[in-house]
Design a protein that fits this description.
Radius of gyration: 25 Å
Strand order of the largest sheet: 1-2
Structural class: mainly alpha
Strand content: 5-15%
Helix content: over 70%
Low-confidence stretches: none
Shape: rod-shaped
Distance between the termini: 12 Å
Largest sheet: 2 strands, antiparallel
Number of strands: 2
Order of helices and strands: HEEH
Protein backbone atom coordinates (compact mmCIF):
# COMPACT_ATOMS: atom_id res chain seq x y z
CA UNK A 1 0.00 0.00 0.00
CA UNK A 2 2.70 2.48 1.02
CA UNK A 3 4.87 1.51 -1.95
CA UNK A 4 2.01 2.17 -4.36
CA UNK A 5 1.35 5.54 -2.72
CA UNK A 6 5.05 6.38 -2.88
CA UNK A 7 5.09 5.54 -6.60
CA UNK A 8 1.96 7.66 -7.21
CA UNK A 9 3.62 10.51 -5.31
CA UNK A 10 6.75 10.24 -7.45
CA UNK A 11 4.73 10.19 -10.70
CA UNK A 12 2.54 13.13 -9.64
CA UNK A 13 5.61 15.07 -8.52
CA UNK A 14 7.31 14.53 -11.88
CA UNK A 15 4.16 15.63 -13.72
CA UNK A 16 3.89 18.71 -11.50
CA UNK A 17 7.50 19.69 -12.27
CA UNK A 18 6.81 19.26 -16.00
CA UNK A 19 3.72 21.50 -15.76
CA UNK A 20 5.75 24.11 -13.86
CA UNK A 21 8.42 24.09 -16.59
CA UNK A 22 5.75 24.55 -19.28
CA UNK A 23 4.23 27.36 -17.24
CA UNK A 24 7.60 29.13 -16.95
CA UNK A 25 8.10 28.77 -20.70
CA UNK A 26 4.64 30.24 -21.41
CA UNK A 27 5.30 33.17 -19.04
CA UNK A 28 8.56 33.87 -20.87
CA UNK A 29 6.75 33.79 -24.23
CA UNK A 30 4.12 36.19 -22.87
CA UNK A 31 6.82 38.62 -21.71
CA UNK A 32 8.48 38.56 -25.15
CA UNK A 33 5.13 39.22 -26.81
CA UNK A 34 4.49 42.15 -24.44
CA UNK A 35 7.86 43.65 -25.39
CA UNK A 36 7.11 43.20 -29.11
CA UNK A 37 3.64 44.72 -28.68
CA UNK A 38 4.93 47.84 -26.96
CA UNK A 39 7.72 48.23 -29.52
CA UNK A 40 5.30 47.97 -32.45
CA UNK A 41 2.81 50.32 -30.81
CA UNK A 42 5.63 52.84 -30.44
CA UNK A 43 6.44 52.47 -34.16
CA UNK A 44 2.78 52.96 -35.05
CA UNK A 45 2.70 56.11 -32.91
CA UNK A 46 5.79 57.41 -34.72
CA UNK A 47 4.19 56.65 -38.09
CA UNK A 48 1.14 58.72 -37.09
CA UNK A 49 3.34 61.81 -36.82
CA UNK A 50 4.88 61.38 -40.30
CA UNK A 51 4.00 63.58 -43.25
CA UNK A 52 3.95 62.52 -46.90
CA UNK A 53 7.35 64.13 -47.44
CA UNK A 54 9.01 61.91 -44.83
CA UNK A 55 10.96 58.90 -46.05
CA UNK A 56 10.62 55.49 -44.38
CA UNK A 57 13.49 53.01 -44.45
CA UNK A 58 13.42 49.32 -43.67
CA UNK A 59 16.42 47.45 -42.31
CA UNK A 60 17.16 44.48 -44.57
CA UNK A 61 20.23 42.71 -43.26
CA UNK A 62 22.95 45.38 -42.88
CA UNK A 63 21.28 47.75 -45.42
CA UNK A 64 18.57 50.39 -45.05
CA UNK A 65 16.13 50.12 -47.98
CA UNK A 66 13.61 52.81 -48.88
CA UNK A 67 10.05 51.61 -48.24
CA UNK A 68 6.64 52.97 -49.17
CA UNK A 69 5.06 54.67 -46.16
CA UNK A 70 1.65 53.04 -46.65
CA UNK A 71 3.26 49.61 -46.97
CA UNK A 72 5.28 50.16 -43.79
CA UNK A 73 2.16 51.24 -41.88
CA UNK A 74 0.29 48.19 -43.18
CA UNK A 75 3.14 45.90 -42.08
CA UNK A 76 3.08 47.34 -38.56
CA UNK A 77 -0.72 47.00 -38.33
CA UNK A 78 -0.50 43.38 -39.51
CA UNK A 79 2.26 42.68 -36.99
CA UNK A 80 0.20 44.24 -34.18
CA UNK A 81 -2.81 42.07 -35.07
CA UNK A 82 -0.61 38.97 -35.10
CA UNK A 83 1.02 39.81 -31.76
CA UNK A 84 -2.36 40.48 -30.13
CA UNK A 85 -3.72 37.13 -31.35
CA UNK A 86 -0.58 35.39 -30.07
CA UNK A 87 -1.02 37.08 -26.68
CA UNK A 88 -4.59 35.75 -26.51
CA UNK A 89 -3.37 32.25 -27.38
CA UNK A 90 -0.61 32.36 -24.75
CA UNK A 91 -3.04 33.76 -22.15
CA UNK A 92 -5.30 30.75 -22.76
CA UNK A 93 -2.30 28.44 -22.47
CA UNK A 94 -1.28 30.13 -19.18
CA UNK A 95 -4.79 29.70 -17.78
CA UNK A 96 -4.89 26.00 -18.75
CA UNK A 97 -1.45 25.36 -17.28
CA UNK A 98 -2.38 27.23 -14.09
CA UNK A 99 -5.48 25.06 -13.71
CA UNK A 100 -3.49 21.87 -14.36
CA UNK A 101 -0.86 22.99 -11.85
CA UNK A 102 -3.48 23.61 -9.14
CA UNK A 103 -5.13 20.22 -9.73
CA UNK A 104 -1.77 18.46 -9.61
CA UNK A 105 -0.82 20.34 -6.42
CA UNK A 106 -4.07 19.22 -4.75
CA UNK A 107 -3.40 15.65 -5.89
CA UNK A 108 0.11 15.80 -4.40
CA UNK A 109 -1.23 17.04 -1.06
CA UNK A 110 -3.83 14.24 -0.99
CA UNK A 111 -1.21 11.58 -1.72
CA UNK A 112 1.11 12.99 0.95
CA UNK A 113 -1.73 12.97 3.48
CA UNK A 114 -2.53 9.34 2.57
CA UNK A 115 1.16 8.44 2.97
CA UNK A 116 1.29 10.08 6.39
CA UNK A 117 -1.85 8.21 7.49
CA UNK A 118 -0.36 4.93 6.26
CA UNK A 119 2.88 5.65 8.11
CA UNK A 120 1.01 6.50 11.30
CA UNK A 121 -1.09 3.32 11.16
Amino acid sequence: MAAALQERLQTASTEFQKIQAELASAVEARQKLDAQLSENELVKKEFASLTDENTVYKLVGPVLVKQDQAEAKQNVDTRLDFIKSEIKRVEGQLKDLGDKSEKKKIELVEIQAALQQAAAA
